[in-house]
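TEACHING EXERCISE
Course module: macromolecular assemblies
Task: Read the component lines below, then compare them to the predicted structure of the full complex.
Student: A.B.
Group: 4
Components provided:
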Amino acid sequence: MNEMEILDGKKVASALDEKMTDRVANLKKQNITPGLAVILVGDNKASSIYVRNKKRRAEKLGINFQLIHFDASVTENELLEKIDQLNHDDSIDGFIVQLPLPDHIDEDKVIDAIDSKKDVDGFAPNNVGSLWIGEPHTLPATASGILMMLDFYNVDLDGKNVVIIGRSNIVGKPVAAMMLAKNATVTITHSHTKNLSEIAKRADVLVVAIGQAKFVNKDFVKDGAVVVDVGMDHDENGKLCGDVDFDNVKDTVSMISPVPGGVGPMTITALVDQVITLAEGRANG
Ligand SMILES: Nc1nc2c(c(=O)[nH]1)N[C@@H](CN(C=O)c1ccc(C(=O)N[C@@H](CCC(=O)O)C(=O)O)cc1)CN2
Ligand SMILES: [Mg+2]
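Instructor-supplied answer key:
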């Protein structure tokens, strides 16, 4: 049986806070306060919690946080007008539109309206392209948080077989691009992939972001693999769980990120880190 280590996102997040606080203090000495704005539409309960956590975290680090909260009935045009304002607001280094949006609003159109220089979600087409050619400007926070966490635990990706289950623009694709840039051999799989468990079992590092509760069991996991669980699902009792059946794989893996307390907290760390980096860019003219 392996000695298993938990990839503890909460612990990493608080360990990284200290450095980020110092960076903000340094900026303030130069009369620059990093600014982050979040646009929230409607009252989706989970989104409201994430945004509240972003605000708490940003303010704790000394970042100027602005919440723009629209009613669910806001029109697409009103939203686009606000985005235009933020694009031209010099006190805001970066902003995001919290997803998901109500059905009457075209998500792609909204993301496209964000100035790619201020797109701290890294979702704008320019930023996606920059990432894939190896010259990233901003990075999607979940993907970036996963790499920060693996780096903290000294998981070297160079030459490793990485298998990603899930091909979303928010997680699967950017994780693939970022791990390629670290010289990993990356395979992206998804719901149509044949022999999925067989392919997953070749992974030294398995990243699971497929959105199905406890989808991955030990049939998918090589002995000693590092498993990153990006799922946020609910089990048969309505309890929050991941895409990986933790109890089933825990004696097979060498490291695993739990849900909750793994990737989730790193998402917010990666977001605020990126806002600080943009403000540092502003300080350096
Ligand atoms: N514009 C964006 N929208 C959304 C993003 C995003 O990166 N940009 N990601 C998700 C939501 N998200 C941040 O926005 C997020 C999700 C989960 C967590 C988190 O800390 N999860 C906890 C569990 C929380 C719980 O108990 O429910 C954990 O995993 O430990 C943080 C941020 C979708 N929208
Ligand atoms: Mg744009």
